[in-house]
Design goal:
heterodimer, A: alpha/beta, Rossmann fold, six-stranded mixed β-sheet, 18 helices, about 40% helix, about 25% strand, elongated, B: about 220 residues, mainly alpha, MetI-like fold, 9 helices, repeat (chain A), Quaternary amine transport ATP-binding protein (chain A), ABC-type quaternary ammonium compound transporting activity (chain A), membrane (chain A), cell membrane (chain A)
Chain lengths: ~375, ~220
Amino acid sequence: MIRLENLTKHYGPAHDPLIAVDNVSLDLPTGEICVLLGPSGCGKTTTMKMINRLIQPTGGKVFINGKDTSTVDPIELRRSIGYVIQQIGLFPNKTIEENICVVPDLLGWDRRKSRDRAKELLELVGLQPDLFLKRYPKELSGGQQQRVGVLRALAADPPVMLMDEPFGAIDPINREVIQEEFLKMQREIRKTIIFVSHDLDEAVKMADKIAIFRSGKLEQYAAPDDLLARPANSFIEDFLGSDRALKRLRLVSVGDAMETDFITVLETDSVEHARARIRSSRSAAAFVLDAEGAPRSVLSEQVAEACSGTVGDHAEPVKSTVPITGDLRQAVSVMFAHDMPLLPCIDEAGRLAGVMSYRSIVHHLGHGGKA
Amino acid sequence: MEIIGFIIDNLHIIGARTIEHISIVFLAVGIAIATAVPIGIAITQSKSTADTILYLASMMITVPSIALFGLMIPLLSPIGHGIGYVPAVVAVILYSQLPIIRNTYTAITNVDPALREAAKGMGMSTWQRLRQVEIPLAIPVIMAGVRTAVVMNIGVTAIAAYIGAGGLGTFISRGISQSDPRQLVTGALAVSLLAIAADLFLALVQRLLTSRGIQGEVTP
């Protein structure tokens, strides 16, 4: 756990200081990612660097797992905190293996243990150890270098990591890939991470908590969905942008927003029967399932009102589905692409688990999400 | 033809003079590396100190070598070395300071600040940072300074023949005083070849000392 208590940094003369960071306090539970977000010069990087004492605080305290870090030797402290910088900063004179082993070597690990660790870490991100261990940084692509930069910070298995715009130098396509990869890794390693970013989309994607800074002050500290649903003031509203509701789509899972009171009918049922069931419910359609429970076709309200005969004669095939593990962004995208006002949501086994409609999305976003 | 004959007849003397010459230059530059590299690193801490030291070293290099030798006669006479080997070595040490200090200083200050920050942020002490990151990265540029110093001082040492330091300059000084073009040309040729050979040798050393990861990059 990381706790900042009234953390403050002043520059310049004491009587007329330049206040870089002003009384920042926050708590970050173990295993979560906190993104420090804000325009440049807002104090987010200074705040981060006070955690590993690259910058000495003027006032306030930093606690890591309950321990006041000002009582620890700064060099010892830094070795116990993973550190990733935007420029990657791999040492060009060292091989990939030596780069990854920097902190284990500083800590005096057994050579064999640290080299094994380097191998294991490279495998973790899909870089073949035999190919990469003995290479030099200049022989790697930018994306590969960035991965190694993260591995280097993880080498000594520190409980806490500081990441200063770690994916900022990578092109947008690779950035997405590396972000995903990192999140996947984080789900297993559960590090407590302070992550500096100026990119709201990145923050929304990576963060468990977002801390928004302005002129050295912490303006709001909240989970991404909370932040987007309830910005604390007009500065944050402006910062989040007018499309903040759309940004929330990514944060809500299909399973959370779908309606589960859908109607199913059989192909052999009469349209009148289906019409009666649709009328007596809030649904706008009835689904026909196959033997496994997967949605096969759909009879919409309009068709049901206009036709007669059996359901099988009039139901239209289901054009697409969305998994319940997906997010609303995905669901909306499918709905737009296939012009489907009603989108069947399926579980892992492919069975119909719920239905997504524009109404359910608006309803969900309107109610401030999970809260 | 006459000259070639002279060279062939005197090969063993030329060899002995060459060794004298090399011993002066390499001993002196060796000592200069031991002083100038630490000075070059130390002055990265303060811009104003760096300016002063580099200024003094530049002034040093503007003193003509013959004047420096003259100056050293009264200074070193009290310890019995007014002329000969010792003042030659001292002069070369002094002349070597500027290229080595300046290149060390430039190389260390030019280390990418991101690397310094990464090293510091990962928990390296100042000394560890120097040893593991800054000096290895600075090696090509430091070595370029050493090469400049060696080549330049092979020339300076030729003049040290006038204060009895021996070396290949002996051929030149005798060639002039005896109006003997054979000695003169032999001396001049040998000094030039030695300078070229020393530079090539040091280029090889530079390559061996430079990490493969930073080879092939341009050095100032």
